[in-house]
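ugh ok fine here u go
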Amino acid sequence: MKKSLFTRFERVNTETNNRTFLPSGLNGKALDISLDDIPSRKEVRDAIPKHCFTRQTNRSLFYLSRTVVIQIFVVLIGLSIPLTKGMIPIWILYAILSGTTSMGLWVLAHECGHGAFSDNRKLETVVGYCLHSFLLVPYFSWQRSHAVHHAFTNHITDGETHVPVVISGDGKSEKKGGENEMESSLFFGKILYGFNQLFLHLILGWPAYLLLGKTGGPRYGTSNHFWPTAPFSKKLWPSIWAKKVWISDWGIGFMLLLLILWSINFGLNSMISLYLGPLIVVNIWLVIYTWLHHTDTDVPHLGASQFSYMRGAFLSIDRPYGRIFDFLHHSIGSTHAIHHIEPTVPHYHARLATRILKNKFPKVYLYNPTPIHKSLWHIATNCVAVKKDYAIDRYVWKQPYHSQS
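structure:
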């Protein structure tokens, strides 16, 4: 079986003139960018108006209040829906609605973690800690791992979240398993493989990342965002961060206690319908954003010699989420590139900064106009494994076997 699969792969690769990737809406643009094309961080900062770097506490609190008011309104709708089996389809629709609106809370907690919410650090920490604990996210643990994700965006070994498996990887610094994943893509076929990837990423992905470090960089081992010591890897939690992980757990523990009391006093069905169902949708949104904004069939991952902070940041992809989602989610998806370059820029300044980034640095700014649902399916079915281009120390997605016919 294995021999026949690789024979077929080599034959098709020859017939397609060794084209090893499928183009996306970016049309291969990211593959034409070299390290020398990337502007310095100072050049980018000089191009953006200084007021974009200012944090206005009252303005941030306004957006938080607006999101909370919207969520209260949605919850009131939920409280009017009967908890009966016949209403399960309506509760599914409610979970989609409530999870979509409450994703705005996640985004604002995310701004707190970056220092983009307020110059009042105590207020910022309290807001971020409470919001993320409410969403069962360990605040300081996530703050640390997310900072690593920003520092090493699309780095093949040191990156954090959505680091791909490598074909012929060395198994030490790179994530092995690329050959097996390519075979799986042929065994299942495009449709089944795509749905399997959507389920693994959107439903299981976020819990698996928090508990086992799945899709994290191989450098950090099997990490756990709730337990910073053995039997899990300690590499993601240096110095004081291990203590901060335990502090994060207090918020999670308190929230779990509230959920238990809710279930005891008002019924398990009430808790699942009004909280757990929407939380699953929030987690789906989170994975959609991180997956789509750092992955596409013609966006490479980088080895050490080709990597820099700015080059990794410029591999972030802005996408068209539309006015409604941008309104509810504070434009996190359509301003992701500037967020990775300057994560302390508040979301209410990010739209202007993004326009400047697009106009000032058009060669390296990445925007994929493909509709989100089409991009999601394209990535789920085609981003299977990468292979190293030794000449320039970068890792390019290979055409999956199921597309080579």
